[in-house]
Automatic annotation (TrEMBL):
This is Yip1 domain-containing protein. It is found in: Membrane. Residues 481-651 form the Yip1 domain. Keywords: Membrane, Signal, Transmembrane, Transmembrane helix. One of its GO terms (molecular function) is zinc ion binding. Its main location: membrane. Pfam families: Yip1. It comes from Gracilibacillus oryzae. The keyword Transmembrane helix applies. It is a multi-pass membrane protein. The lineage of its organism: Bacteria, Bacillati, Bacillota, Bacilli, Bacillales. GO terms for cellular component: membrane. Residues 1-24 form the signal peptide. The chain crosses the membrane at residues 431-448, 499-520, 540-558, 570-595, 601-622, 634-658.
Amino acid sequence: MKKIKKITLVLLTLLLYILLPVEAAMANTAYKTYTEDGYGQYVETQTAYTVKNTIVQFDDELFTQASDMKIGKDGLLYIADTGNKRILVGDANGKFIRSIGNEVLQKPTGIFLSHDDKLYVADEIAAKVFVFSLEGELLQEFGRPESILFGETATFVPEKVAVDKRDNVYVISRGNSNGIIQINANNGEFIGYFAPNQTIVTPLTVFRKAIFTEEQLSKMIDTVPATAKNINIDEKGLVYAVSQGERVEGIRKLNVAGRNILDTAVYDDFPVSVEIGSVDNIFVAGENGFIYEYTSEGNLLFVFGGQDDGRQRVGLFNKISAIAIDASDQIYALDPEKNQIQIFQPTEFANLVHQSLELYQNGDYDASKGPWQEVIRLNGLFDFAHLGLGEAYFKEENYQLALDSFRQAKYKEGYSDAFWEVRNKWMRENVIYIIYLLILWFILAQVWKRLNKKYKWKERMSQSMDKKHWKWLKDITFIKKMIRHPIDSLYSIQYENKASYLSAFFWVIVFFILFVIEKYYSGFIFRYVRDGEYTLGTDVASFFAVLLLIIVCHYLICTINDGEGKFKHIFIGSIYAFAPYFIFKPFIILASNFLTYNEAYLLSLANFIIYGWVAILLFVMIKEINDYTIRETFKIIFLTLFMILIAVLLLFIVYILILQMVDFVVSIVNEGVYRFENR
């Protein structure tokens, strides 16, 4: 999923560059800003950050292959000038202050400013973590831990470092998959490994381990978890780590126990840096030049930036190695290939979002409504603003407005909670009317029962349906018998002509209508399509194509396996086997509009019963129509599924061949036109 989102983001950016006039693009920024809607898709939004300044050197001091950067309490920038084996210190205006570690450092790749104003530096080649004062005095150094718990073969190649307020040093060592190394800053003792990434075991790996010999397994590449790429710590002592690799949590927000409390994903294949803003917002930078901003709970607010195409445009990067955030929420992004720092300042729109977020997180829900509404006025597609407004309304117990806001935000969990409250209020206000309706229904049922007994209306209607011109209606209602007596019903279909193509086609149309209604008009929280999204053309083609494919494949398999059923019987029997679906599904679809996640198990149970019931009836239909044994029936089902797979593969191959033929014809025509025009 994260790869799809990354590709989508790049394509959207390129498309906007192509479609927009150059003057319009340059008048604003060289990049576009996106946010995430309630469906998890990128949508363009107002520019959140603009480039304020660019730093390429501190006075006459250039930096080379810089790999990390931090900002001190005094606003000074500390840069791991890896190529020059030092730490550069300067201000935001490019003024040089000092250089640290010139005679000590060999390859500084990670730095951290501790709460007690010390500078920690991770050095790969020296294989040590050095501790300096902010003036540059070497205070302490940590080498490879000597504890046996560290592991004899474990590597200690420090890449990044962080320190919490308890003086615990967290070190990321290249190639050490045991986790983040913890060292006591006071005595240098090894504390243990912290929050290792989980080992990803694919089904293929499990299969190989099950069948391979010991010799074959010894030749396989070990399945080891990815090593974290960068680390940071906030004021509350929570540790943030970013990692690279497939099926790896790109960003983790770790508590003291090392448990990830962040339920989100970084839609970037190569996250390299993580920082925390003033409202606990999380900034993540990817190597490819994109910068992501999340809320403290993991909701994506903005993503901007991108990779430069060689035109050296402001706001784009060749590569990002680190980002840092100052007290004004300005973002400093370090490009090690351009050897420069770009400073992004938040726009009024971003400040408005941050103001709303801060008010809400501080519990001032009433005050947060105004800013949220202003954000929505500026951009109605900014779904997170609808979510924030809905949360504010919910905290105020204004559940109807919360319901509307959550619907706009496509936030199903919040919608479910608000609907629960709205429904409870409606039930309390209308329970007496519901009781009156139930009593009235009972009275009418008794009246109907007595009148029917006296005038025999039901019997007369049944006799009327026996007439020839009512046979089609009787064939349609015959489906009720499939519920009570499926075997007798199948016998009647095959030998007594109790149903027809016309009645079966009627139920096929009902089947399709119920399929469409369930897809588009189920309850909002149980619907799997987006609001306002309709693909009826695709629905018609796919529904009838799949239905026809299954029935035809099954008939052909039965024909070559001595099945007694004719196509008519198999077709009608297959459709009538869906009787539980036709009878009970409308009530489930209706109920889905009045249920919440608290009752979702009822919906799942009802659907399980219906589909299980249909599966049993289909099994009975195959057995009885074709006079198979139970064993033969299972065999026919398996062969039918196999034939469907083969048919799909053949259709796909034909489709590819047709496309290639069309491309070939088009290329021939284009070549002919080109040569004719150039004669």
